[in-house]
Amino acid sequence: MSDFLLIHGSCHGAWCWRDLIPALRTRGHSARAIDLPSHGSDGTPLADVTLDMYAEAILRAMKGPTIVVGHSMAGFPISRAAELDPTNFERLVYVCAYAPRNGMGLADMRREAPYQPLMQAVIKAPDGISFGIDPAQARDVFYHDCPPETVAFALTRLGQQPIKPQETPIEIGENYASVPKSYIRCDDDRTIPPEYQRTMTDGWPERDVYAMDCSHSPFFADPTRLAGLLNKIAAGE
Predict the structure, then answer these.
(1) Which residues contact 172 (CB under 8 A, 6 or more apart)?
(2) Which superkingdom (predicted)?
(3) Each residue of 12-53: pLDDT tens digit?
(4) What residues have CB less than 8 Å from 87, skipping those under 6 apart?
(5) What total number of domains does the chain contain?
(6) In what side-by-side order are the strands of the sheet with 66-71?
């Protein structure tokens, strides 16, 4: 069985993996999640956060061979962590996440997509350091197919997202390239266009790309199905 480390996306925290962790443990895996700096219960000031700070937090959380799962924005820090030290990375799994290209920032890649469904819901802080999501639009962009109780749970926990890590060009090379990778696309995603998720995996081996017919939040919309795919990936099927 495998050890899964789950890394959240923008404005989220470890809390978003609430339903997936028990689904993975039921299948015999160990699974845990962390709050990245300034997210969830982590008190790092928003202005201090960097992409490498995210990556270093991921490396500190690893305890041996680990499958590291990144959702959305987390595609960048999990990739950067693998570049800094690939030693314990058994595999990287991108869940409707940005699969980065060397020298590009996440915001560069977002702007490269054919359309920008999230931007209508983004509220930039007056100081320019972070952004949040309009609560009135959060369900539509993140959780439109999730149970009402789950949506209510999430809406009370969404936080601010530091902008600096997303504007930082990533440096990845041979270390990153040496780590096996899988991608789980969400075909009803209203945050990262599914078309762009396909673009990001152009040239990937077909066996390493999976799809779910759900929103940007498969960990809430269908945690059982997501756990099943992760179990399949861990088994090398």
Answers:
(1) 79, 80, 82, 83, 100, 102
(2) Bacteria
(3) 999 999 999 999 999 999 999 999 999 999 999 999 999 999
(4) none
(5) 1
(6) 30-34, 3-7, 66-71, 89-95, 181-186, 209-212
- Tokens 């040239």 locate to 203
CATH code for the domain of 150: 3.40.50.1820
Residue whose C-alpha is closest to residue 68's, from 196, 191, 180:
180
Cβ-proximal residues to 205 (8 Å cutoff; 6+ apart), any chain? none
What are 184's strand-pairing partners? 95, 210
Give CA–CA dist 95/192, Å, rounded: 11
Residue type, 154: A
> Are the beta carbons of 148 and 125 closer than 8 angstroms?
no
Residue bearing tokens 């997501």: 226
Q: How far apart are CA 138 and CA 152, in angstroms?
A: 11
H/E stretch holding 56: helix 51-61
Q: Which domain holds residue 154?
A: 3-235
Please tell me whether the overall predicted TM-score, pTM, comes out greater than 0.90 for this model. yes
CA atoms within 13 A on the CB side of 6: 25
* Strand pairing class (181-186; 89-95): parallel
Rounded to whole angstroms, how far apart are CA atoms 52 and 57? 8
Give the tens place of pLDDT for each residue, 173-214.
999 999 999 999 999 999 999 999 999 999 999 999 999 999
